Amino acid sequence: MSRFWSDIVRRLVPYVPGEQPALAKPVKLNTNENPYAPSPRVLDAIRAELGEHGESLRRYPDPLAKGLRAAVAAHHGIRADQVFVGNGSDEVLAHAFQALLKHEKPILFPDITYSFYPTYARLYDVEYRTVPLDEQFAIRVDDYLAANAPNGGVIFPNPNAPTGHALPLAEVERLVAGNPDSVVIVDEAYVDFGAQSAIALIDRYPNLLVVHTTSKSRSLAGMRVGFAFGHADLIDALNRVKDSFNSYPLDRLAQAAATAAYEDADWLASTSARVIASRERLTAALAAVGFNVVPSAANFVFATHPAHDAAAISAKLREQEIFVRHFNAPRVNQHLRISIGTDAECDTLVAALKGIVG
Ligand SMILES: *Cc1c(COP(=O)(O)O)cnc(C)c1O
């Protein structure tokens, strides 16, 4: 705290990202990164963009990321004017809070969800109200309908984080249709691991914004590329904020890498299938040592042990250089969120857990 700080900085509660340990070979299952490399085409595209002497780097990148937006629009069967690109979906979400969720009435999001939402709400002074998930950690759509809960907007991840629970598309549609006067943002960071995308609905609902990232299923967390899909008026709002903040949020290498990743749908399908198979295998192994595991449609599982404290388990794993995520928050402080690694990493984890929980 300093006397030079603004009021807003004093009030901020920054998001705390998962640890990036400086170890040679940690078993890193704490930030939902992909265990597999990106498509080989990504590397080729980065090399081609650099050229022999890196001469392209002298020039600013395309501020509109036209090539990338065209590739992503083609992949999803939509128009490029329905696509917004940002520096990671976190930046896309930040712009959406400022551009589309700041109104008189409070916005709604689940009590257990991505912890960046309350952080952005405070940063942009957006009123919010959290809505409890049910006992199975599912979103109850009725709790979000404008008729029952007047609101200035709704945001939730599907599948939800950190629970991994997915809402069927028909339920997402009921929520969007039940809020014709406010924007509903569906954050689909994990959709490729087992949920149905709401992109199919954007032509019919002008209040729907769907957010995606290349960080999880496309193995590009290090490149920082995220998207929003929606009616051109919503995309226009995001572009107005972007062009009042940073005209060049995506560098040349990120644009080239993400374009190549979207052009290799086979790579996405095969690596996602491997992660899903490992998730089912890890879920069974955790159950065998006594954990209760929430059924997951994501690249992580959310698990609790009836006889052992979650924070203590996490600390003991850490001593063995195995990293999982523990949230010290109400309702979930006895759970661990475990990212799906390779089968070998999952086996190392399970062996360590056997030693800890007996
Ligand atoms: C990981 C994650 C993001 C952020 O992704 P980036 O594109 O890496 O910024 C957004 N929303 C949820 C729910 C996530 O888990």
Automatic annotation (TrEMBL):
The residues covered by the Aminotransferase class I/classII large domain are 26-353
The UniProt catalytic activity note for this protein reads: L-histidinol phosphate + 2-oxoglutarate = 3-(imidazol-4-yl)-2-oxopropyl phosphate + L-glutamate
Class of this enzyme: transferase
Biological-process GO terms, alphabetical: L-histidine biosynthetic process
Family annotation (CDD domains) = AAT_like
- By its UniProt entry, which InterPro entries does this protein fall under? Aminotransferase_I/II_large, HisP_aminotrans, HistidinolP_aminotransfase, PyrdxlP-dep_Trfase, PyrdxlP-dep_Trfase_major, PyrdxlP-dep_Trfase_small
Keyword Chaperone in the entry? The reply is no
Q: Which cofactor does it need?
A: pyridoxal 5'-phosphate
Give the matching Pfam families: Aminotran_1_2
Q: In which pathway does it act?
A: Amino-acid biosynthesis; L-histidine biosynthesis; L-histidine from 5-phospho-alpha-D-ribose 1-diphosphate: step 7/9
- Tell me yes or no: is Transferase among this UniProt entry's keywords: yes
Q: Which EC number(s) does the record attach to this protein?
A: 2.6.1.9
Where N6-(pyridoxal phosphate)lysine occurs, residue numbers? K216
- Alphabetically list the UniProt keywords: Amino-acid biosynthesis, Aminotransferase, Histidine biosynthesis, Pyridoxal phosphate, Transferase
The Gene Ontology terms for molecular function here are: histidinol-phosphate transaminase activity; pyridoxal phosphate binding
Q: Where on the tree of life does the source sit, at the highest rank?
A: Bacteria
Instruction: Outline the subunit composition.
Output: Homodimer.
- What family does this chain come from, according to its entry? Belongs to the class-II pyridoxal-phosphate-dependent aminotransferase family. Histidinol-phosphate aminotransferase subfamily.
HAMAP family per the UniProt record, alphabetical: HisC_aminotrans_2
- Alphabetized NCBIfam families for the sequence: hisC
State the protein's name: Histidinol-phosphate aminotransferase
Gene source species: Paraburkholderia acidisoli
